[in-house]
Amino acid sequence: MGKSNLDLVKECDRFPYYADDPAFYTAHMRNYHAFRVNGCDANLGYILNSVVKKLELPANSWAIDADNRTVTLMTDPDATPEQRSELIAETLAQAVKQDTFEILRGWRNEKYPVYAPGGKFLLEMERSATPLFGVVSYGVHSTCYVNDDNGLRIWVPRRSKTKQTYPGMLDNSVAGGMSTDEHPGECLVREAMEEASLPEDVVRKNSTAVGCVTYFYVRGAQAGGETDLLQPEVEYVYDIKLSADVVPKPCDSEVEQFYLMTVDEVKAALANGEFKPNCSVVLIDFFLRHGILTPENEPNFLDIISRIHRRLEFPTASHFEGTNASDSKQ
Amino acid sequence: MGKSNLDLVKECDRFPYYADDPAFYTAHMRNYHAFRVNGCDANLGYILNSVVKKLELPANSWAIDADNRTVTLMTDPDATPEQRSELIAETLAQAVKQDTFEILRGWRNEKYPVYAPGGKFLLEMERSATPLFGVVSYGVHSTCYVNDDNGLRIWVPRRSKTKQTYPGMLDNSVAGGMSTDEHPGECLVREAMEEASLPEDVVRKNSTAVGCVTYFYVRGAQAGGETDLLQPEVEYVYDIKLSADVVPKPCDSEVEQFYLMTVDEVKAALANGEFKPNCSVVLIDFFLRHGILTPENEPNFLDIISRIHRRLEFPTASHFEGTNASDSKQ
């Protein structure tokens, strides 16, 4: 018996739901402090109590409220994103120096953004540190597929065996994390070249924005570093329909090889646990939108759809390119 | 200024979220009793306290627990769905006789199902009574569209001016509620003929199951009958791609006329509040899946997507046609 689609979804969406058991949820929340920023009326993430204990949080920059279980960055309410980010960077530099957290040994030198309500850019922090604060991270995932007389087939890469995370596992055709200042459409174009050697014009012509998946991941041993750290995630999803003569090829060292797999082959690999966990969710979403999983053939149709579009309890990004949102990112 | 897409979503998804304000949510829940069935360990809906007060609930069939705010149908734990449905029908017949509720004046003579955890069929009740118990209701909504050299256009019907609910408003191409024993695919075929004169072979050949939308509606004055009744809903969603020579035509008396509207015309009608509320949500979902609404042009992209796939806190249906689920429906 392989894994069901709901099993795969539950491997990603692991944080409990209040409505399933209010008493359990309330008790569970005592394991965390809410991460907050002075002047911003929202929880931005949940920090494990064990992390709060180990982090050195100088009293001139941080306030810990043990009763309400909050950890607040005490910058001026009118501070700039740069000022907030600088204090976070100092705190993390100290943790790296003292080798406090295994997860920071995987330092990426990439900055990930944190947003205030309304999608306003609040601060940025080193990518590998985001699970320590339990803040939302963002990425782009896309499925390249061919649909011709030979049926629907999907381009599936295998991750390099030397990759830091999930080495050798199957992946989505094009996928990657979004750094500060990047927009989903740009990120897609960049990653499609870096990971699949697909030129910008091919991507722009053949890709369709088809929504997003969201889920609340809790890191297990497979993810590396400390376990039980929180990683709520948003993945913007794109379909890229290619003609059979366009062949994605590895470009950087992250991908080993691409396979053109039938739907049945992808289903078998999913059930077999061969895909990186969050890539399973993106493929299940693809199957749901393309009539491959239906109410009549997927026993957990409704539960799957709501869990992979989870409403996260933190402010999330807006990448709107109209006047208000782009102003807020300056 | 017209309505934003998020405004339209909020008109459907109106019940509060725990995470937005735990104290408010907890206080708000004191307005309801949970509807339960003896032997089934789940809340099946929320009944307004004012409804509990007015309903005659004979003590040999019902147990009211004022402390825990539950109303429980006291059938034997091993009762059949027929036995449970019979007691509900008796209670409702009494309410109709005494004209206790305005909403029951719109008696439909259609039975709607209620499911136990795992999607098991538990009981059925008259359609117009479901908001009194706040149980989940199910329907099928589909968008018929043409996408050719003239661009993407959508078939939009106007509801008959004599229809009981939302007369004269714009609607989804094909939409309708699902009675007990009906499966989404069958319901689509039936409604497509009844509402749009589309033959079964055309529907089967051109339709794609593309997921569902779910939201937690709270009835306002526009819905008719008592206000503040709860109506959590699941709509199974289908796209039907038609060639330009296939023209939907009204068949029964529910639809007045079909228009073939451009995307911009649909957007304008949405902003103008011309669509029946839950039809807006289905069109927004269509726009999100077809690259019309993107992270860059929709400021509330993430909030919209998670709210229209809300995880309902009640057991929901499984229409799986494998062995286990269809057994449970017998």
Automatic annotation (TrEMBL), chains A, B:
Does this entry carry the keyword Calcium?
no
Instruction: Provide the GO MF annotations for this entry.
Output: 8-oxo-dGDP phosphatase activity; kinase activity
What is the protein's given name? Thiamine pyrophosphokinase-related protein
The UniProt record lists the keyword Kinase: yes
Its source organism is Aspergillus taichungensis
Q: What domain of life does the UniProt record list for this protein's source?
A: Eukaryota
User: What InterPro entries does this protein's entry cite?
Assistant: DUF4743, NUDIX_hydrolase-like_dom_sf, NUDIX_hydrolase_dom
Ordered alphabetically, the record's keywords are: Kinase, Transferase
For the Nudix hydrolase domain, which residue ranges apply? Answer: 137-283
SUPFAM superfamilies this protein is in?
Answer: Nudix
Task: Please name one Pfam family that this protein belongs to.
Answer: DUF4743
